[in-house]
Design goal:
- The complex is a heterodimer of chains A (149) and B (134).
- Chain A has 149 residues and is mainly beta.
- Chain A has two domains: 35 residues; 86 residues, Immunoglobulin-like, CATH 2.60.40.
- Chain A is built from one helix and eight strands; from the N terminus they run H-E-E-E-E-E-E-E-E.
- Chain A starts with 12 loop residues before the first helix and ends in a 15-residue tail after the last strand.
- Chain B is mainly β.
- Chain B has a domain of 85 residues: Immunoglobulin-like.
- Helices cover 0% and strands 40% of the residues of chain B.
- Chain B is built from no helices and nine strands.
- Chain B has a four-stranded mixed sheet with strand order 1-7-5-4, with no helix packed on it. A four-stranded antiparallel sheet of chain B has the order 2-3-9-8, with no helix packed on it.
- In chain B, strand 8 and strand 9 form a beta hairpin.
- The chains are: A mainly beta (149), B mainly beta (134).
- Chains A and B meet through strand 1, strand 2, strand 5 and strand 6 of A and strand 2, strand 3 and strand 6 of B.
Chain lengths: 149, 134
């Protein structure tokens, strides 16, 4: 299939470029599959996993005070808000490197399934926030027995 | 005071493979702050997921290596549904400008943040030399 038709009198190169760009990114996503989706990320990046009974959302948030975190579950969304503060050192220091960043964040995460808002637990360990949410009964996998007739 | 800045996600940078790693998986460079006072060099590194007993600090002459092994990032029977960040161990090497007193190194690990206090050896401290009047 030709991408550009040169005989077209209404050919708009910029629109064509835009379309090509979209096709390329689509292709990229298709070939690399559901890998990392970082380029459109919002802080903090999360990994979501499940087991039979629970859904887990994890985020790397090193050096955060748990009281600076606000976690809300609302209508199938998980809302994470907080602030990362890096205390300023005493005056007489010379910085060689400053790579750690401070600031606030707010992220709304669409959950892949409904959860019980009153069965949500959050824990913070080694700089990783884990939010454990109980799946509702109807979302749990159920084994179906085949009956011999 | 910390200015109100919105945090942006950053991709973790993989550590250059210098030698074969024994543990499978990726290895990343931790983000660090390094600052110096006349007496000490302080290094603060973000190593989320690393328990305090899995940190290794190695100082030899002017060469510093920090590394940390993460605890398993997922529970036993968990399947990943959304994968936005990679998990893996941390490793980074530094050349130190000053000679460090190895016997007085202090390391603390809290909430995935390593803080290393590296006291300088006496001779590396700047000293004021008094000029005697002859």
């Amino acid at each position: 299939m030709p991408i550009v038709t040169f005989r077209d009198p209404y050919w708009e190169p910029f629109r064509e470029m835009e379309r090509l760009k979209r096709r390329m990114s689509h292709l990229f996503e298709e070939s690399f599959g559901p890998g990392l989706a970082q380029w459109r990320g919002v802080y903090p990046l999360v990994n979501i996993s499940e087991d039979q009974d629970n859904l887990y959302v994890r985020a790397e948030l090193p050096g955060i005070k748990p009281e600076a975190l606000e976690i809300t579950v609302h209508e199938g969304n998980l809302i994470l808000r907080g602030e990362r503060r890096i205390p300023t050192e005493e005056k007489q220091v010379n910085y060689h490197r400053r790579e750690r960043e401070s600031g606030y964040f707010r992220r709304v995460i669409r959950l892949p399934m409904a959860v019980h808002p009153d069965q949500v637990e959050a824990s913070y360990k080694n700089g990783i926030l884990t939010i454990k949410m109980a799946k509702p009964e109807e979302a749990k996998p159920r084994q179906i027995q085949v009956q011999a007739v | 005071m910390a200015e109100e800045k919105e945090l942006k996600p950053r991709a973790k940078e993989e550590a250059p493979a210098k030698a074969e790693h024994v543990r499978p998986g990726r290895v990343f460079l931790p983000a660090v702050d390094i600052f110096e006072t006349p007496e000490t060099l302080t290094l603060v590194a973000d190593m989320p997921g690393v328990p305090s007993d899995k940190i290794t600090v190695d100082v030899r002459d002017n060469h510093l290596i920090i590394s940390g092994e993460i605890a398993p990032p997922l529970g036993d029977k968990e399947n990943l549904l959304v994968h936005e960040y990679y998990t893996g161990d941390f490793y980074r090497e530094f050349h130190l400008g000053a000679t460090i007193d190895q016997s007085r190194i202090e390391a603390t690990m809290k909430d995935g943040v390593l803080r290393l206090l590296l006291p300088k050896v006496e001779k590396a401290k700047p000293r004021k030399i008094e000029v005697k009047v002859a």
